[in-house]
Each structure stands twice: as C-alpha cells, then as structure tokens.
Write a structure and sequence with these properties.
The complex is a heterodimer of chains A (about 110) and B (about 110). Chain A has about 110 residues and is an all-beta fold. Chain A has strands spanning about 5, 10-15, 20-25, 30-40, 40-50, 55, 65, 75-80, 85-95, 105, 110-114. Chain B has about 110 residues and is an all-beta fold. Classes of the chains: A mainly beta (about 110), B mainly beta (about 110). The interface of A and B includes residues 41, 101, 104 and 105 of A.
C-alpha cells in the first residue's frame, strides 16, 4: 500500500537493549523525520534526513542513531534503551519541493522500556 | 517562552457550533503554518496549511493567519462529535527544515 508505515507498532524492551524502529515510505519523498511524543512535551524532533545518506540532529538526538541508505527507509536505533525513552515514536515524510513543508505521519510505534 | 503556544483545553462546544482554536508563535521569520488533527491513540493528520496572511477555507475548516500579531487560528464550522480530537498547531521557520509543534488543544464536541 502507498503511504508511510512503521514497524513494529508496539514494542516492549528492557533497559540496556538495542532497539530499532523501522519507517518505510512509498511516496519517494526526499525528507524524512523521527519524532517522539510525550505528555506535556508534544512532538519533539529527534533526527531528520534530507536525502539518502544525509541526516541531521533535531531537538532531542541523544541516545538515538539513524541511517538512510535508501530513500524509502529511515530506521531509528536506540543503542542502549533507557526508561526515559519510553514514548510514542512517529516517523514523517515530506516532498522536496521548495517552499512546501507539509509533513505526513506514519501510524506510530509505542515503545515501552522496562 | 515556548516557540509555539496553544491552550491545552479542553475546549467544549455544542454540536453545530463554531469551534475556534488559537495558536501563537514566537519566531517572526516563520513562513509556513499547519494544523494537524490527532485522535486519541492515532498519528497526527494534516488538515490545513497556510502560508499567507488572511483566511484559507477548506470545507468546514478555515485557517486564519496574522503574521504581524504572530497568531494563527483554526475555525471549525458546524462542529460534529467526530471533530473531537486534539488539534496541533505547527510552524516552520524559513531556511531550516524544522517544524515546531505546539502541545495541542483538546476539542470536545458535545452532542
């Protein structure tokens, strides 16, 4: 199906484990983003990517790693999960047309770190 | 001061009334403004974008932008119970890919 998908949708992991959240989009959008959403903080940008092999930090990058070897995929890795990383994670994408900034979100991954 | 501010609500309106949601932003160079709707447990869904001062209408939704006052609003006419959700205001500052989101206003439409 066309659009943006995330997997897994739900994940429970233990402190210290490595976790990778997947994001896949079929629109060939240039830009992709990872956000976390927490009560009282709203959506906060973790990392973004302007194109394959181009990534940059957002507002809250510590403890996370991203890569983008293909335009359609943008995985987010928690190298050593901590309880403070319990959150809902959203991937988003947007096209590359100059002056347009509409972002479209995936369904989200609810991550619990015990 | 937060970059994008919204009243958290809840804002309660009766069915059929006009719901008015407000948002202020701090960065004067902001150029693009968005409203997202987020149902509980779901992802944000883009409903309106506005780039120029004035009003932009799309069905029952009207976005209003006043850059001089650094203020953007969303009006929902003929509110329906299905409009009950949290509405997120988002602002992009020119020259950077970052879109900053407000924490959202929860809207409740009472049948």
């Amino acid at each position: 199906d066309a659009g943006i998908t995330q997997s897994p949708r739900y994940k429970i992991t233990e402190t210290g484990r490595q976790v990778t959240l997947m994001c896949h989009q079929t629109w060939s959008h240039s830009y992709m983003f990872w956000y976390r959403q927490d009560l009282g903080h709203g959506l906060r940008l973790i990392y973004y990517s302007a194109a394959a092999d181009i990534t940059d930090k957002g507002e809250v990058p510590d403890g996370y790693v991203v890569s983008r070897s293909k335009t359609e995929n943008f995985p987010l890795t928690l190298e050593s999960a901590t309880r403070s990383q319990t959150s809902v994670y959203f991937c988003a994408s947007r096209g590359g047309l100059a002056g347009t900034y509409e972002q479209y979100f995936g369904p989200g991954t609810r991550l619990t770190v015990t | 001061q937060k970059e994008v501010e919204q009243n958290s609500g809840p804002l309660s309106v009766p069915e059929g009334a006009i719901a008015s949601l407000n948002c202020t932003y701090s960065d004067r160079v902001s150029q693009s403004f968005f409203w997202y709707r987020q149902y509980s447990g779901k992802s944000p869904e883009l409903i309106m974008s506005i780039y120029s001062n004035g009003d932009k209408e799309d069905g029952r939704f009207t976005a209003q932008l006043n850059k001089a006052s650094q203020y953007v609003s969303l009006l929902i006419r003929d509110s329906q119970p299905s409009d009950s959700a949290t509405y997120l205001c988002a602002v992009n500052s020119g020259g950077y890919q970052k879109v900053t989101f407000g924490t959202g206003t929860k809207l409740q439409v009472i049948p």
